[in-house]
Amino acid sequence: MLRIGMLTSGGDCQALNATMRGVVKGLANNVTDLEVYGFMNGYKGLIYGDYRMLTSHDFSGILTRGGTILGTSRQPFKLMREPDANGLDKVEAMKQNYYKLNLDCLVILGGNGTQKTANLLSEEGLNIIHLPKTIDNDIYGTDMTFGFYSAVNIATNAIDCIHTTASSHNRIFIVEVMGHKVGWLTLYSGIASGADVILIPEIPYDIDKVVDAINKRKSRGSNFTILAVAEGAIPKEIAALPKKDMKKAMDKILQKYPSISYKIAEDLQEKTGTEIRVTVPGHMQRGGEPCPYDRILSTRIGSECAQLILDKEYGCMVALVNGKIKKVPLKDVAGKLKTVDPKCQEIADAKRMGISFGD
Ligand code: F6P
After folding, report:
1. pLDDT of residue 95
2. Looking at ligand 1, which atom is closest to the CA of residue 111?
3. Which one of 3, 51, 203, 217 has the lowest number of neighbouring Cβ atoms within 10 Å?
């Protein structure tokens, strides 16, 4: 008898179901006696014992379905060691539910915060495998996270749509792209859609350099400019401050404007006198069905996870490294962030053809 638990935690993405399907099909095909327990709404289900026994039927027909059949929630890592409102020790509660069900392994799908808790549970002695989910692609130790390329498609489509209307007007358009503290999604969708300016957190922007880029386009006869702006973009004068002051300064901006894009819009309006429009695709970027790339990546990650369970190999993340799916020790990657290297080839290639990064 093999008993596994599974949960999805943090923000959802398009390929969670596809990945869980990979795990369960990979196991069901190779063991006769399999029990799968799905914990509902992320770590909440594990803490409070909210779970369902699932059969392989639950995982059939979900390769193309976005969201997560298990539901999800955000349970901040920094609060995991703090008792809940009723004094419950959350870590102990999670361990007890794991042992009560006599699980051989718990498969945890999620991003950075989720991974830290997965590592904590592994250190507490549970058999854990983490599968790297996020549209942000910011998980250290894997070249790619599932969900990323589906979101790139959506953000790219959004900028493509803006392109056609932009070319009819003498305006500056800003499309704000998700990605939390990193610029992967903005970089990739910006390049894929031919954005003229790409602003990412890893390259703090100088607003005057953005104005220069707009003027350069004008002098060449282009009457519009499209900016792909990461939600975490940061002005260079603020990035230069000590961390605490930097946070204060950004908080002040976000008290005045709905997001950084609106501040950039106001600054550009003032400096160029040109009409500006801001578009925020927001959570659309996490919705809809997984793209073919993600379906393949998820299936491979899920299938490899099944093999690791069969081999009783735990305490790891299943990663994509140089085109190969392999296991990476959780303790080596938990708590680290994968940011865009400003000197990476993608950026050099983009700069060579005239895309401005505001630096
Ligand atoms: O981590 C995925 C993500 O979509 C980020 O890109 C974004 O900053 C955040 O989640 C939004 O979180 P929420 O869904 O809690 O608003």
Report:
1. 98
2. 1
3. 3
The set of protein residues with a Cβ atom below 6 angstroms from ligand 1 is 11, 74, 111, 134-136, 178-180, 231, 286
Spatial separation of the C-alpha atoms in residues 285 and 278, rounded to whole Å: 16
- 352 CA → ligand 1 middle, Å: 32
Residue 130: name the closest of 297, 294, 314 by CA. 314
Q: Which residues belong to the active site?
A: 136
Tell which phi-psi region holds residue 268, choosing left (phi > 0), alpha (psi between -120 and 50) or beta: alpha
CA within 13 Å, CB half, 109: 37
pLDDT at 347: 98
For a mutational test of ligand 1's pocket, the pick from 74, 178, 182, 339, i.e. the residue with the most ligand atoms closer than 8 A to its C-beta, is 178
User: Residue whose CA is closest, atom 2 of ligand 1?
Assistant: 11
The residue whose CB lies within 8 Å of the most ligand 1 atoms, and thus the one to mutate among 135, 280, 284, is 135
Report the alpha-carbon distance of residue 260 to residue 263 in Å, rounded: 5
Q: What pLDDT score was predicted for residue 56? A: 85
Burial 90-116 (b: 16+ CB within 10 A, else e): bbebbbebbeebebebbbbbbbbbbbb
Low-confidence residues of the chain: pLDDT under 70: none
